[in-house]
Design a protein that fits this description.
Length: about 270
């Protein structure tokens, strides 16, 4: 009799257990290390933009919605057909790296929803890239000012995205494709410029070498002039006598006649 009284309670307990198990996925939720979340309260104040849910396991009422955002850096790639400063067509592949500001995902969701990449990031990158590249010629974008173009695009993109709570960390031009005729003309011009620079370098080097030799020759000539101007007959005779005396000390020298030479220099006679 007592067992029959317990049956309704057992049935209710089993039903409650199944209901709890079914609702557990709506009650417990997990936020990953690179994620943040906000809660939408349909029966309350709506989207809570101020309370940012940090990584970990959390609980919520089954009727409330958890809106999770990836806050790690994201890379998007875009292919664009644009016109340069002169109206020439250019195909450009651009990469942009960015991430939503973790503390502002509620504002991002309210303004753009989770599709903020397609509603904000990509349109602005495309727009800024066109505006910036329209200030340069195809040759500048292709070669001489590519880095400058990237910096300009990143700077302008940052201003717009930061104002909408998204950080742009890099904007890179992956590749630039020009019409073949224009590309070949630019490459030929660049090659000619490099050859001209190499030729000018050789000329400058040869001029420097010629200048060095001229200075060395002038220095040697001045030294000879100084030596020649310091020489006299008496000095030469004195040096000759000194040399003769040194020679006389040699064991092979036998007779030294002083003053017998045509110029008054000593003569040395005899040897072994």
């Amino acid at each position: 009799m007592n067992n029959r009284r317990l049956v309704p309670f057992i049935v209710i307990g089993v039903i409650a257990l199944f209901v709890l198990a079914g609702l557990s996925s709506n009650i417990f939720y997990k936020i990953g290390p690179s994620e943040r979340a906000v809660i939408f309260y349909p029966f309350g104040n709506g989207l809570d933009k101020e309370q940012i849910i940090e990584p970990g396991t959390h609980m919520k009422a089954p009727w409330n919605d958890v809106i999770m955002y990836e806050v790690a850096e994201i890379t998007s790639e875009e292919n664009m057909d644009i016109n340069d400063k002169n109206g020439l067509p250019i195909h450009v592949d651009v990469s942009v790296r960015y991430f939503p500001m973790p503390s502002k995902i509620g504002d991002i969701h309210e303004k753009f929803t989770k599709d903020y990449v397609n509603r904000l990031v990509i349109p602005e990158v495309r727009s800024v890239s066109r505006q910036v590249m329209a200030k340069y010629t195809a040759e500048e974008i292709y070669s001489t000012k590519r880095a400058e173009v990237e910096v300009s695009i990143k700077s302008e993109t940052e201003k717009i995205l930061n104002a909408n709570f998204v950080n742009a960390t890099a904007v890179l031009i992956r590749s630039i494709k020009l019409p073949d005729q224009i590309r070949v003309a630019i490459e030929n011009k660049l090659q000619q410029e490099q050859e001209a620079l190499a030729y000018q370098y050789r000329l400058d080097k040869e001029k420097s070498e010629a200048e060095r030799k001229r200075i060395a020759a002038e220095g040697e000539a001045r030294a000879n002039n100084i030596v020649n101007s310091s020489l006299s007959d008496k000095l030469l005779k004195m040096r000759g006598i000194e040399a003769t005396l040194e020679l006389a000390k040699s064991p092979n020298s036998k007779v030294v006649i002083v003053g017998s030479g045509g110029d008054g220099m000593p003569l040395i006679l005899g040897n072994n």
